[in-house]
């Protein structure tokens, strides 16, 4: 029988396991505790029992059954719900993790397994010198995307250790607090705008050691050659359902790595999740620009995004140019200081002109005068069971609407039809070689999408009308300051496409020292379509349009061309809409949701975030419900991923839309979790 003192005691036994490296020391420790003992006191009691002199500051309790950390050290065991059957592990919060970067390089570094993923990604980006960490996240590669690789090579293993860049000695990686001023432009390493390599005066920002410069180069420079065999082994989505598999593995940003089943030494993908690249600056973003370029390059090579033959050759030419530039000597690096002075002088000059009011082109003479376009364009309205009839009309573009008339003389009367482009889908249909400049408009109506096709006569007309349509779809007019830059961007892209106009005699002048392997620069589909010599000749022809760019400019041009593709920025998920009997694909973009027919790939309906009133999740039935203006509401369940992923995508894009250059470059983390967490 127990004594009266033992019987009246409130203590109870708790078995604790310690995750340490000392083989001669026990790993399990039984302790007598009370329910009013706080977690910090339990730590102190355990450390006294272990009797090992070491720094225990990075250790915390992990509750194995409930898959959660006990990080609130002032909470009592009763408040935490800890009882005698609890399995608590005293383990480090920072553990080694392998990350596959967009450039397919693997880095090994120490990451917080107890912080929310949003915070962990922020710390990772500080280690890698990538600004705007909110645009990235961590992705678990789904089993479906690994099947092809396993079939090709059953004995394939993880990358060899020599291919892994070890960054475990970084201050942040070691569990030390990161410098709060890392994002300050005065603290950020400056990169040569031509070569992309870190300036010698700031290279010690990364860490001490002789390998620092090499590490920076690996992250900031591309080595784009890969064998066709390697490309063939990688997962290539063939259908929208296949593309949906690519986005199924995003981790929950509001939970820690450990809570989501990630273990020490696991491998995850670090990817740009949100396609809104804010404030890209070649002077401070060499690593960031390179990783965006690499993510775009692999998306095109693996056909994760569709592009035309003409566009594929442009992308191939920019990659081939990259190889030729990388093979040059480093003579251009000496121009860093001179180029910086030139940029400062140019900035001061622009500021002086602006203050004096000398730049008249940026000032509207009459603020009430809304710009308009008026031109003869050809109109096509596809009809079922009938040929597409093309007819010329007089078109007038004003505000966010297009009106068309029978001819210019009748423009003072009632139009044949007026099209409101706000919220529409704008799809380019261009073939420069064939002199085809088309704009496809998918305008939302009550029962779906109304398709209208406009045909322009030349590049200039197309650029002006296309830019106006793009802005109108976002609810902006041509009076917006972004109109002229949008026109120039479109013209620049068309100029790159115009490779057939180049002289055939100069095709081999620039990249003569490059061992051209065209199969490395295009997707396997085009490798099968053309012979190697044909591809080489066509890539070299396209190369002439990009041969005068700097290395960073070539990457930025590649990114801009990627952003110009119709499918850019769309993340696909298979969903079942409420009331529907068949599955559909939901495309999530930075400003809209698109319902897409899974069989045909045609968009059915578009909903803009700007018209969204509220959205929520019914966690019991895993259903996302969204309300829009004009009493429009939708609800759907996600079949290809957890509904939390789509919920976080929507909230994340809305959060990113609140960013401003005027604000300090610190993030409102609480606002992000409020918009994406899904819990009140």
Summarize the structure in short:
This protein is of the alpha+beta class and 680 residues long. Strands 14-13-12-11-17-16-15 form a seven-stranded antiparallel β-sheet, covered by helices on one side. The model is unreliable at 1-8, 152-162, 177-189, 198-210, 329-344, 356-368 and 500-514 (pLDDT under 50).
SSE layout and pairing:
Elements: H1 4-7, E1 12-18, E2 28-33, H2 39-50, E3 59-63, E4 68-70, H3 77-80, E5 88-92, E6 94-100, E7 106-112, H4 117-128, E8 136-139, H5 147-152, E9 164-166, H6 212-220, H7 228-233, H8 240-245, E10 267-272, H9 286-301, H10 309-326, H11 336-356, E11 372-380, E12 390-398, E13 401-405, E14 417-420, E15 425-431, E16 436-445, E17 448-456, H12 459-473, H13 483-497, H14 524-529, H15 532-543, H16 551-563, E18 571-577, E19 584-588, E20 592-596, E21 603-608, E22 612-618, E23 623-628, E24 632-638, H17 643-656, H18 669-676
Parallel strand pairs: 1-5, 6-10, 7-9
Antiparallel strand pairs: 1-2, 3-4, 3-5, 6-7, 8-10, 11-12, 11-17, 12-13, 13-14, 15-16, 16-17, 18-19, 18-24, 19-20, 20-21, 22-23, 23-24
InterPro entries: Band_41_domain, FERM_2, FERM_central, FERM_CS, Kindlin/fermitin, Kindlin_2_N, PH-like_dom_sf, PH_domain
GO molecular function, one term: integrin binding
Keywords: Cell adhesion, Cell junction, Cell projection
């Amino acid at each position: 029988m127990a004594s009266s003192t033992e019987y009246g005691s409130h203590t109870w036994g708790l078995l604790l396991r310690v995750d340490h490296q000392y083989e001669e020391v026990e790993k399990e420790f039984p302790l007598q505790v009370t329910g009013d003992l706080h977690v910090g006191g339990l730590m102190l009691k355990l450390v006294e029992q272990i009797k090992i002199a070491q720094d225990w500051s990075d250790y915390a309790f992990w509750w194995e059954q409930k898959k959660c950390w006990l990080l609130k050290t002032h909470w009592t065991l009763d408040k935490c719900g800890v009882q005698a059957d609890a399995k608590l592990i005293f383990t480090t919060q920072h553990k080694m993790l392998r990350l596959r970067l967009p450039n397919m390089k693997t880095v090994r570094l120490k990451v917080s397994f107890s912080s929310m993923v949003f915070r962990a990604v922020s710390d990772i980006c500080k280690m890698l010198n990538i600004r705007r960490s909110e645009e990235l996240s961590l992705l678990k590669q789904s089993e479906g995307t690994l099947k092809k690789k396993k079939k090709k090579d059953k004995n394939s293993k993880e990358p060899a250790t020599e291919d892994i860049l070890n960054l475990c000695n970084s201050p942040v990686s070691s569990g030390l607090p990161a410098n709060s001023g890392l994002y300050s432009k005065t603290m950020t390493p400056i990169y040569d705008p031509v070569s992309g390599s870190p300036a010698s005066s700031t290279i010690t920002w990364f860490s001490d050691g002789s390998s620092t410069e090499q590490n920076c180069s690996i992250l900031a420079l591309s080595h784009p050659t890969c064998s066709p065999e390697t490309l063939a082994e990688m997962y290539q989505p063939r259908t929208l359902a296949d593309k949906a598999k690519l986005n199924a593995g995003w981790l929950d940003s509001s939970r820690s790595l450990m809570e989501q089943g990630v273990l020490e030494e696991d491998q995850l993908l670090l990817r740009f999740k949100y396609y809104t690249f804010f404030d890209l600056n070649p002077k401070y973003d060499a690593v960031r620009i390179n990783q965006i370029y690499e993510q775009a390059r692999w998306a095109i090579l693996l056909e994760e995004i569709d592009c035309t033959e003409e566009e594929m050759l442009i992308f191939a030419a920019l990659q081939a140019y990259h190889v030729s530039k990388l093979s040059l000597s480093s003579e251009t690096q000496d121009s860093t200081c001179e180029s910086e002075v030139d940029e400062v002088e140019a900035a001061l000059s622009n500021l002086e002109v602006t203050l004096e009011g000398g730049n008249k082109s940026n000032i509207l003479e009459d603020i009430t005068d809304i710009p308009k376009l008026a031109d003869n364009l050809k109109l096509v309205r596809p009809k079922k069971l009938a040929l597409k009839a093309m007819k010329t009309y007089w078109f007038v573009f004003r505000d966010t609407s297009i009106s068309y008339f029978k001819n210019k003389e009748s423009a003072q009367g009632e139009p044949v039809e007026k099209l409101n482009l706000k919220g529409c889908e704008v799809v380019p249909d261009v073939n420069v070689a064939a002199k085809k400049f088309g704009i496809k408009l998918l305008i939302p109506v009550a029962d779906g999408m109304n398709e209208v096709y406009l045909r322009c006569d030349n590049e200039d007309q197309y650029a002006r009308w296309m830019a106006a349509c793009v802005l109108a779809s976002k609810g902006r007019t041509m009076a917006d300051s972004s109109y002229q830059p949008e026109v120039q961007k479109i013209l620049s892209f068309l100029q790159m496409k115009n490779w057939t106009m180049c002289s055939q005699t100069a095709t081999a002048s620039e990249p003569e020292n490059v061992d051209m392997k065209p199969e490395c620069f295009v997707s396997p589909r085009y490798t099968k379509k053309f012979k190697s010599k044909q591809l080489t000749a066509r890539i070299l022809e396209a190369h002439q349009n990009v041969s005068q760019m700097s290395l960073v400019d070539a990457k930025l041009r590649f990114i801009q061309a990627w952003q110009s593709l119709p499918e850019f920025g769309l993340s696909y998920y298979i969903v079942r809409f409420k009331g529907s009997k068949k599955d559909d694909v939901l495309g999530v973009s930075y400003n809209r949701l698109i319902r897409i027919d899974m069989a045909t790939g045609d968009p059915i309906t578009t909903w803009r975030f700007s018209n969204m009133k509220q959205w929520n999740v019914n966690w019991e039935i895993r259903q996302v419900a969204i309300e829009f203006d004009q009493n429009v509401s939708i609800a759907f369940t996600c079949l290809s991923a957890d509904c939390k992923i789509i919920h976080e995508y929507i909230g994340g894009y809305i959060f990113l839309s609140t960013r401003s250059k005027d604000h300090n470059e610190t993030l409102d983390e609480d606002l992000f979790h409020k918009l994406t967490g899904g819990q009140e």
